[in-house]
Amino acid sequence: MEKFKIGSLEYAPYNNHNQEHNLFLKSQLEEIEESGELEERMGDISYMFDHSYQELSTFSLNNPNAYLIFDISEIIGFVYMYLNKNNELLLYLGIRKDKRKMGYGSKISQELTDYLLQAFSLNGIKVQVESDNIGSLKAIEKAGFKYLEDDFYIKK
């Protein structure tokens, strides 16, 4: 699987045979458990990583992608992408708790989505953000996403 770079950040496909990748996933699950966030979120993240099996260059329906995001050599978060039947890319971005409020969410939302829209023939990129997640809302609005419905936002 291939890595790619956008700006100063590097994106590496999640590899369940890579110890560093598995440790990151484990830390995310522990962080969710400790924070008391919804248990279904833990299941969502496990599913994302367990069902990621293709490279970015081969987007196709029902074939998800999970990438870890590195700043220099440190994992700062992950992005999960899934192409729906309307040729819209559904995107889920997670930033490590200790790396939040450092501008990564805005930077990734802007740079990655601009790249994806230019590099691939997509009808748009959708994200779902809960209305009480102020930091994520600010990041996606800054990146050019517009409210659609049911807490979904789209960028075309």
Strand order of the largest sheet: 1-2-3-4-5-6-8-7
Output the number of helix runs: 4
Structural class: alpha+beta
Tertiary shape: globular
Order of helices and strands: EEHHEEEHEHEE
What is the strand tally? 8
Q: Percent of residues in helical segments?
A: 25-40%
Beta-strand percent range: 25-35%
Largest sheet: 8 strands, mixed
What is the straight-line distance between the termini? 27 Å
Mean pLDDT, rounded to whole units?
81
Are there runs of 5+ residues with pLDDT below 50, and where?
A: 38-43
Q: Specify Rg, calculated over alpha carbons.
A: 15 Å
Model description:
With 156 residues, this protein is of the alpha+beta class. It has 4 helices and 8 strands, in the order E-E-H-H-E-E-E-H-E-H-E-E. It has helices spanning 19-35, 39-50, 104-119, 134-142; strands at 4-6, 9-13, 65-71, 74-83, 88-95, 124-128, 146-149, 152-155. Strands 1-2-3-4-5-6-8-7 form an 8-stranded mixed beta sheet, with helices on one face. Strand 5 (88-95), helix 3 (104-119) and strand 6 form a beta-alpha-beta unit. Helix 1 packs antiparallel against helix 2 (39-50) and helix 3 (104-119) crosses helix 4. The radius of gyration is 15 Å and the shape is globular. The model is unreliable at 38-43 (pLDDT under 50).
